[in-house]
Amino acid sequence: MMIETIEKLTGSDLNQVLEVWLKGNFDGHPFVDQSVWLHALPQVRQMLTGFTVVVHRNQSGTIDGFLGCEAGNIEGLFVLPASQHQGVGSALLDTVKEQHPSLTLHVYEKNERAVQFYRRANFLMQSRGIDPLTGEADLTMHWQR
Description:
Helix content is 35%, strand content 32%. The protein is an alpha+beta fold. Helix 1 packs antiparallel against helix 2 (34-48). It has 4 helices and 7 strands, in the order βααβββαβαββ. It has a 7-stranded mixed beta sheet. It has helices at 14-28, 34-48, 88-99, 112-120; strands spanning 5-8, 52-57, 63-70, 73-79, 102-108, 124-130, 137-144. It starts with a strand and ends with a strand.
């Protein structure tokens, strides 16, 4: 798939981005009860307005992926299941890499697809911890230009 459009989030796109976030969490984290994500949705809505968010639009103009970043910390990278393995996540990540000399993120250890994706993008594991929201093991990963 050719990358269609990568742009910054606008207020009118927030609901689409939240839908991608929710579907991405349901798909990528089957080991976390869905009620956790539903409960967190209002807080995420608030947080996204303070982050730098880049979105990917597919050929129909629909947002099918986004990346939120704050001060060199990737707060979330989500791509709809139907658009995965088509270069969307890599394009979003490359866009943010151009803007930062180093990046840090947290990823659930059980989300093996995401861990492998970040390893292929030259992120290295720094530490292992427990996410206080879910009680699940997470990895802190770091990339440096």
